[in-house]
Amino acid sequence: MTEARPGTAASAPLWERDAELAAVAEAVDALCAGSASGSLLVFTGEAGIGKTALLAESRRIAETRKCTVWSARGGETITSVPFNVVRQLLQPALVALMPDEAREYFGDWYDIAGPALGIAESGDRQADPQGVCDGLVAAVRRLARREWPLVLLVDDAHWADQESLHWLAAFAERLDDLPVLVVVARRPGDATGESARHLDSIGALAGPMPSLRALTPDATAGLTRATLGAHADVPFCREVWAVTGGNPYETVELLAKVQDSDFEPVEDSASELRALNRAARGRGLVDRLEGLGVDATRFAWAAAILGTQISLELAAELAGMPRDEAERCAALLGAARILTEAGQTTGQVDDGDLEFVHPLIATAVYRSIPDALRTAMHGVAASVVTASGLGAAAASRHLLEVHPDDDPELVEQMREAAREHLAVGAPDAARRCLERALLEPPLPEVHARVLYELGCATLLTSPATTIGHLRQALTLHGLEEELRVDAVCRLSSALIHNDQPEEAVAAVDAEADRLQPGPARMRLQAVHYMWEGVHVAEEDAPGRSRRLAELVKPLTGRDNSERALLILRAFDAMTRGENAEEVVENCDRALVNGRLAPGLGWTDTEWSFELLMMLGISYAFADRLDRAEGLFTEAQRTYEHAGWSGGHLAVAHAFGGYVLRRRGRLVDAEESLREALRLADRVGSGLPMHWSAACMLIDTLLARGHVGAAEEIAERYSFEPPHPSTIVLPDTHSIRGRLLIATGRVEEGVNELETAEKRSAARGGHNTVMAPWAGDLARTLAVSDPRRAAEVAADARTQAERFGTDSAIGEALRCAAALETGRRSVTLLAQAVAYLEASPCAYEHAAARVEYGIASHSVTELTRGLTLARTCGADSLVTRAREALAMHSGRVPRPR
User: Fold this and answer.
1) Omega before 730 within 30 of 0, i.e. cis
2) 3-class secondary-structure state, position 151
3) CA gap 699, 706 in Å, rounded
4) Rounded to an integer, what distance in angstroms lies between the CA atom of residue 366 and that of residue 79?
5) Sheet containing 180-186: which strands, arranged edge to edge?
6) What is the pTM of this model?
7) What does the pLDDT read at residue 537?
8) pLDDT value at position 866?
9) CA separation for the pair 688, 331 (Å, rounded)
10) Residue 356, phi then psi, degrees to nearest 5
11) Which helix (H) or strand (E) holds 416?
12) Which of 94, 289, 507, 693 might form a disulfide with 676, Cβ 3.0–4.6 angstroms?
């Protein structure tokens, strides 16, 4: 049982917290001893169970060891304020840094994380929430190294804002190489949605730790005697425990009331305890507050409206009293153990700021305000906050509590607040503001714009919600043509990401029919062909290709609408296996002096990033890997610089990784593709980007010969039917068929490959490298159905020659050679080697060399193939080449 230091009941001695305090002391000792890694402790428990006291003792232990301690507290009334907790936490460091120092410490992350922390101006572009989170993680890591040894305390994490919890969960994952101690206290079950998910993640990282329990009767008796004196008798102590249930906060408050009274802690007085306990909490606390007078009550109400880190000046203005009167009220409330200086609870003194002594008190005071008055006070608070220069976003949390009243000014305030939230990477906060603006409701002439802005705010986080808002916006007047076209394009993008490709195309077509020929109509036509091009189950793919080719034929690429159509034509021709030279020519015409045109960059919002991915993919599968690699490298660099580290960066890593796979740099490709999946996992699960990255990684692992690892990825990411309704590259049926055959499920694998064959036929042709089903199908059928195998291989060769790239023809020749024997096989393999040597695809070249060496019994060719295979990181091919070499030289191959 933990004994307390001498003091009053209000110091909340920590009884029966030996295990928790030992864990804190051990973690602090490890930190101060120079441990290379940090640690995370999470304390959970019901209200009043002693979490705040435990964090206060953690501070004392850390400060005794000369640690730097930063702390923050969530608040029940301010969960809607984005980045509130992380700003509190970093306040001591931010205050100490001059602007130039902050920029130096944060480096490239300054412009990304600075606006969220309130130390840098936000840009005009919507910030990526994941990028801002990553920027905050990087910024705190840099500050932590400067302030070592550093302890971070977060109290009432269940009331922390969602954005801060996102940061905290990400930061906690990175403690393995950062000597920082993080201690979190929270109630179980009070958070919902994303906040609950982040808290669960934090708890899982911390590992199992029992929830804090109520005090036993013996501990309650010890605490009672430590507070009131050793003469407190057994019946009295037992009644203290019975009245409070062993809740430490209630026990401390009750004993404080006993101290304030005149009765002795003996059995004869025990009957008074229940009445005293009622006065210490709930309605009794409110009665005690009202007993301090009207002015003190009004000031306490104002403080409760403002939340945590309460500015004395703002509270005075909200309460409608001069500063000296506010100071008097604050003193009264301090003596009554209702308010205290901010430094008393967080340990960080912010001149003039106040805090409630305990969250339970803050809740009781806030809920004691009559409903109508509380709403009115929030309205006044919004005006006070705005007048103080804190901005629309700071005022918005109060406006969220005001009843709708046909107020156009409130609508504009909430729209401005939403823009501020989006600029710092808080789209959920923006959504709340715009949803509140709709309730007002907006004037008819701005109603459609508010819906459009709401749709834009939710596009990255909730496609289904976006669909409803944008559809409604398009039924109203108020969107001029350019904005209306943009709304339709965003609606179609949301429908695609919600797996509704038919509806996406229909929405674009309906709007295009309304417009006269011109750039706006051409933009919609481009979007139409883009979504049709990625829809797997379209009914007339050959017809669409013909129409697109006719539309593009006269275009020169004079504006971005024409450039978009040229890209789409190139992508369509590439997927259907049309002439590769024409594919590259259309790609080149979409560029300006070999670069992306202004307004058509990776972070420009008029055109979706999928369009530029199609450009890079078209180059990649047309053997122009140099240009593809340049585009995807630029995409990664651009997204990282802009702080876009969510889905956009994941896709850029995925396709950049697949270019490495095509080059034969299999080890680098695997690394990039695993990074793509890691980034995608942070965005969500089961997304189209997961399918693409998983498919590419499985293909890469199979090329390396790592079948087990490929199978593990397939299982982790549910790489199985049903397949997505949008196109995945490389072809999922082809890669899944290859995987099934590699794992011995040959019949299932053949079924998948034949499905790929049927889909290719429906599209009127296929790129044999993008959809490599033919080679695997022919090899598998070679024994059981040689005639069918020969037909498949012959058709593949015809299709490859139609496309015309060295890699496609070389692979087709390898496939044909696998069905032959003797001189015919050797001749075909020699031709395959010649084509693949001229291609940029080193792995396929290595495989052809090894196969040629085996067929021709050439030690020279085997040696060259072995060298290439080692360079590629193709482990199974290395083994095959070494075994063949050993056989030809009469040596037993060395174990690897």
Assistant:
1) yes
2) strand
3) 10
4) 15
5) 39-44, 180-186, 150-155, 68-73
6) 0.81
7) 67
8) 97
9) 59
10) -75, 145
11) helix 408-423
12) 693
User: Measured between alpha carbons, how far is 227 from 500 in angstroms, rounded to an integer?
Assistant: 67
From CA 724, how far away is CA 500, in angstroms rounded?
Answer: 11
Say how many C-beta atoms besides its own lie within 10 A of residue 5's C-beta: 10
Cβ contact 573:582 at 8 Å: yes
Neighbour-count burial for 574-585, b at 16+ CB within 10 Å, e otherwise: bbbbbebebbbe
pLDDT-above-70 percentage for the chain: 95
Q: How confident is the model at residue 350 (pLDDT cuts 50, 70, 90)?
A: very low
SS3 126: coil
722 preceded by a cis bond (ω within 30 of 0): yes
pLDDT at residue 283, rounded to an integer = 64
For residue 834, pLDDT beyond 50? yes
Express each pLDDT in 602-622 by its tens digit.
998 888 888 999 999 999 999
Per-residue pLDDT at 890? 62
DSSP secondary structure, 827-853, as one string: HHHHHHHHHHHHSS-HHHHHHHHHHHH
Using alpha carbons, select from 457, 453, 517, 458 the residue that is nearest to residue 479.
453
d(CA 109, CA 430): 23
Report DSSP state, residue 128. P
Mean pLDDT of the region 806-816: 98
Largest CA distance in the chain: 111
Residue 93 structure tokens: 């460091």
pLDDT digits 0-9 by tens, 839-861: 999 999 999 999 999 999 999 99
What is the SS3 assignment for 623? coil
Q: Are 786 and 805 in contact (CB under 8 A)?
A: no
* Cα–Cα distance for residue pair 563/588, rounded to 1 Å: 10
- Residue 180, both tokens: 């920082």
Looking at residue 545, its amino acid is S
Residue 547, pLDDT > 70, answer yes
Which distant-in-sequence residues (6+ apart) come within 8 Å of 333 by Cβ?
289, 292, 296, 299, 300, 303, 339
Taking Cα atoms as reference points, which of 79, 73, 72 lies closest to residue 163?
79
Structure tokens at 535: 């829809």
Long-range contacts of 742-745 (CB under 8 A, 24+ apart): 742/702, 742/707, 742/710, 743/707, 743/711
Q: What is the pLDDT of residues 700-721, one digit of tens each?
A: 999 999 999 999 999 999 999 9
Q: Would you say residue 20 has pLDDT above 60?
A: yes
For the purposes of burial, counting CB atoms within 10 Å of the CB of 896, is it exposed (0-12), middle (13-18) or buried (19 or more)? Answer: exposed
pLDDT digits (tens, 9 = 90+) for 621-654: 999 999 999 999 999 999 988 888 888 999 999 9
* Number of DSSP helices (H) and strands (E) in the chain, helices first: 45, 7
